[in-house]
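In this section we walk through a basic example: taking a raw amino acid sequence and producing a predicted 3D structure, encoded as discrete structure tokens. The instruction is simple. Fold the sequence below.
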Amino acid sequence: MHRNEKKKSVLWAYVLWLFGGIFGLHLFYLERDAHAFLTWSTLGGYGLGWLADITKIPRYVRDINNDPKFLEDFIQKVRKN
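The resulting token sequence is shown next.
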């Protein structure tokens, strides 16, 4: 595993998103510190970033958990672009 020993949970990420998302709590949990700081300093990207994250959380969790499917998709996107 890469940055952490325990796998992160999609459920916990959504709970943190719901109750502390405008402060970036879900992003701190998922170790996306720069993104979390930006979210915290703009109160959820003025609300728009907070709403957009609802669709991105599963991808963020796959990234932090080193999911092979995420890595394959990422490599394909890099090759394409």
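Looking at the output, two observations stand out. The mean pLDDT is 90. The chain has six helices and no strands. In the next section we compare this with other chains.
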